[in-house]
Write a structure and sequence with these properties.
Blueprint lengths: L5 E7 L3 H11 L7 E7 L4 H13 L4 E5 L7 H11 L4 E6 L2 E3 L3 H8 L4 E4 L3 E2 L2 H6 L2 H5 L6 H6 L9 H4 L2 H10 L10 E5 H6 L12 H11 L3 E4 L6 E3 L9 H16 L12
Parallel strand pairs: 1-2, 1-4, 2-3, 6-9, 7-10
Antiparallel strand pairs: 4-8, 5-10, 6-8
Helix pairs in contact: 11-12
Amino acid sequence: MDLPKISVVISTYNSEEWLRKVLWGFNVQTFKDFEVVIADDGSGPGTAALLDKMREEVFYDIEHVWQEDDGFQKSRILNKAVTACNADYVIMTDGDCIPREDFVEVHYINKEKGFFISGGYYMLPMNISKMITRNDIANQNCFNINWLKDKGIPKTFKNNKLTSRGIISKFFNTVTPTNASWNGHNSSGWKKDILNVNGFDERMQYGGQDRELGERLFNFGIKSKQLRYSAVCVHLDHKRGYKTPESIQKNLSIRKETKREKMVWTYYGITK
């Protein structure tokens, strides 16, 4: 059996309605040589049932990596998912981000030794998130700014994420003031680089654990490419019950230490 060229890791937790839309999004990709690895942080049986059903509907392989529900332990399940990836190159995204049809292709053609890729997202309000059908994904309506404006999306600069292509998107990638950090919803890198820094720090719960991985990759000598106007996904709305001031504070102090000590390795990662 030939190994896939790309492994796409999708994190999820009890969110079947959104995950279904995301998996449909991956079913219309222009680049097709990839597998999907679901990083499931303790969902109930509904998610496994959905994946069984989706395996019949999609062209790609789905691997389901699950752990017991122990509160928000995304870092831990992502480490397990990375270990399960069959490809040398890994894209990470979330189960609430529908990828545009060229999403995997953009990551694939821009991958480069010594770099990771930082992509962006376009946030949708709840009413439109709910409204999007399988047909809207197949026809790419949810990336069409006119369709979204008809549904009430306001005119803002961030609409350029959906409308700019080619040279224009390259220009915006270059001039955006946002750092090309590792973003959990849309980033990619070499599996061996992620293993070389020992993956995610499992002490970290909600807030910045993806950035901290990127900071250790920087310390390790890996550079980043900004593709937030080229590697595009739309982010479906949801509540964030797991966001606490304590977890944010704790994670900030871990990130400060990573920067101060120029750490490349976490003792709380894949290898214990």
